[in-house]
Amino acid sequence: MEVRVSKLTDYISDIFKTDPILRNIRVVGEISNLKYHSSGAIYFTLKDGDASLRCSMWRQYAELLRYELEDGMEVKAFGAVQVYAKGGSYSLIVRDVEVSGEGGLMTAYRALYGRLRDEGLFDPSHKKSLPLFPRKVCVITSGTGAAVQDILKIIKKRNDAVDVIVCPVLVQGENAAGEIAEAIRDVNSRAAGTEMTAGKKSQAGDRSADKEKECGSEETADISGAECFSDTDVIIVGRGGGSTEDLWAFNEEPVVRAVYESRIPIISAVGHETDFVLTDFAADVRAETPTAAAAIAVPDIRDVRLSLDSMSEALTERLAALCRERARSVERFSPEQLMKRLRNRYMFDAGRLALYEPQKLTRMIKSRYGASRAALEHESQRLSAAVRSRIAEKENALEKARIMIDGADPERIVKRGYAIITDKNGAVVSEAAGLASGDMLSIRLRDGTAEVEVKTTEVDDDGR
């Protein structure tokens, strides 16, 4: 059979194109002659001890690589074998590359970690302290995942006076990293009272508008986006658990840099306790789970109240002791005590004067008595004023202490909208774990009490 070269090449090319193995094949080898072309394509040769294979990776696939290739790297190249007619050769058109051994994602993780660490993005001296009593917390996560519900539940349970703003973003997939990084910068910009640049607004598109609609609670539903994010004290960035691929957005460089550059303290809460992503190292605080992040961000109001009650009792005892001490000091300088001393002195002097000339002594006594009486009256008035001033001062201090104690009075707490639940023995009930179906409870409300029966109980996963 006689054919032309081009016909033979076309025939071989058709075989390659129709062969299911050659169309989707994974080739293992060592990279050599690596070249990054200005067009964005990557060219290299795969070789082993016996043969070599030319490879090409076009720009649309090269942009998806999460790490840089290097000569001598042992890889698995996935793609299709094609014939190059003009050169009379074949090559592998690569669609993906996986590093042999620990895997491509881990290689990318280690490489980016080392580079960002050397730049100082994980430096502990850069980390900011969390506010002790935050007024507003912004949560950047999926708007539909379980993580956001866990965070909202824990924060409301610990301190329902804190405003929580949810900024919904994608947390996995190709566009997730860009949305997360943009959201972090957006919250910082709005919290500082500045607007995004026109370029950022254009890039934000519909997602930014949707985020403003999500912004707010029942009390702030009509507030605009900028006002909604103003005075943000803490940002929680994270998501629930998943595979390494699912969590990868939080290992992307734009997200890590946005976390590092945030002026607002950030808590990184990604996955489970054993999951470590690069945002954990750049954030000001790392939480093991989203639930733990909520507990870290907001103090438990019950613990705060117990602490205030203890401080109030100590202050009251200290003020009472101080008043008793001052009262004893005042008694030593009372007008009655001074009069008694002067009277005794007068009796002593009168006895001595009886030994001298009566008329002369009488004049001396009258003169001295008059002066002493005037001095006594002046001193008595001065001391009386000082005593009244000191008593008024202590009464004011006691009144302030009484107001502080009244603020912690359970009856006043009930009047502010809270309730006190007691069991049939009158003991206060604070946990659902100790209840059973059929138990009778009494609820103390602002205007009276209500008797209720427990139907079912449900204890939170964290036992709180």
Report on this model:
This protein has 464 residues and is α/β, with parallel strands linked by helices. The protein folds into four domains: 5-101, Beta Barrel (OB fold (Dihydrolipoamide Acetyltransferase, E2P)); 133-299, Hypothetical protein af1403, domain 2 (Rossmann fold), CATH 3.40.50.10550; 303-408; 414-453, no CATH class. The protein contains 15 helices and 13 strands. A five-stranded mixed barrel has the order 1-2-3-5-4. The protein has a five-stranded parallel β-sheet with strand order 7-6-8-9-10, with helices on both faces. A hairpin with a 4-residue loop joins β2 (42-47) and β3 (52-57). It is elongated and about 170 Å long. Mean pLDDT is 82; it is low at 194-226.
What is the N-to-C order of secondary-structure elements (H for helix, E for strand)? HHEEEHEEHEHEHHHEHEHEHHHHHEEE
The CATH topology of the largest domain turns out to be Rossmann fold
Count of distinct strands? 13
What profile does the largest beta sheet have? 5 strands, mixed, barrel
Strand order of the largest sheet: 1-2-3-5-4
Point out poorly predicted stretches. Answer: 194-226
Overall mean pLDDT score?
82
- Percent strand equals 15-25%
CATH architecture term of the largest domain = 3-Layer(aba) Sandwich
Looking at this structure, what is the CATH superfamily of the largest domain?
Hypothetical protein af1403, domain 2
Distance from first to last alpha carbon = 85 Å
Q: Tally the helices: what do you get?
A: 15
Q: Bin the helical content.
A: 40-55%
Rg is 41 Å
Number of domains: 4
Quickly name the level 1 CATH class of the largest domain. Alpha Beta
What would the principal axes of the Cα set say about the shape? elongated
